[in-house]
TrEMBL record:
It holds the Pfam family Macro. It comes from Salicibibacter cibarius. Residues 1-168 form the Macro domain. It comes from the Bacteria. PROSITE patterns: MACRO. InterPro entries: Macro_dom, Macro_dom-like. This is O-acetyl-ADP-ribose deacetylase.
Length: 168
């Protein structure tokens, strides 16, 4: 499995699945969630309504509507609360469950945004370390269909953090 860090708009990215940092209602919102629903069109919202909702740390899958990607894996990151509510483990679960779903669908390429580091306020460096570590742990799994993971960083701070962590 290969890991790459890019500074991009995830909605324009051509992979088997892009991951959405959604909320529990799955009805769209701001940030990357808003961008994905705007770019993908109403088909995604219709599928999300059918699914109903998603708990923090869990993941669900829909098509990607009008975007170049084939699927959207929606996961709900934890709201940062000063590490009082198991946020680290819940964020780990987002990455694990999204990858797990990608394997169930036999997907080869997946792109993650920096889950929880926007509106949900998770400290960026702490989140980046969790993301890299959790995805890295699945590197050794030969059974995995996933061959390439992209961390799509929207802001320069996240881009620099991920680059440093992966180089170090
Ligand atoms: N492509 C890639 N990354 C992006 C894009 C984009 N087009 N737009 C924003 N980001 P956030 P959260 C980055 O706030 O913290 C929504 O309202 C952004 O710079 O989107 O998990 C949901 O409905 C940041 O690094 O998600 C929830 O209510 C990262 O995406 C809530 O926000 C995540 O920021 C979820 O909050």
């Amino acid at each position: 499995m290969k890991i790459e860090v890019l500074r991009e708009d995830i909605t324009t990215f051509d992979v088997d699945a892009i991951v959405n940092a959604a909320n529990k209602t799955l009805r769209g919102g701001g940030g990357v969630d808003g961008a994905i629903h705007r770019a993908g069109g109403k088909e995604i919202l219709e599928e999300c309504k059918e699914i109903g909702g998603c708990e923090t740390g869990e993941a669900v899958i829909t098509t990607a509507g009008k975007m170049p990607a084939r699927h959207v894996i929606h996961t709900v990151g934890p709201v940062w609360d000063g590490s009082e509510n198991n946020e680290d483990e819940l964020l780990q679960n987002c990455y694990k469950n999204a990858l797990q779903l990608a394997v169930e669908y036999n997907l080869k390429t997946i792109a993650f945004p920096n889950i929880s580091t926007g509106v949900y306020g998770f400290p960026k460096e702490r989140a980046a370390r969790i993301a890299v570590e959790t995805v890295g742990q699945m590197l050794n799994d030969d059974e995995s269909s996933v061959k390439q993971v992209f961390f799509i960083c929207f802001d320069k701070e996240n881009y620099d953090l991920y680059t440093n962590i992966l180089e170090g």
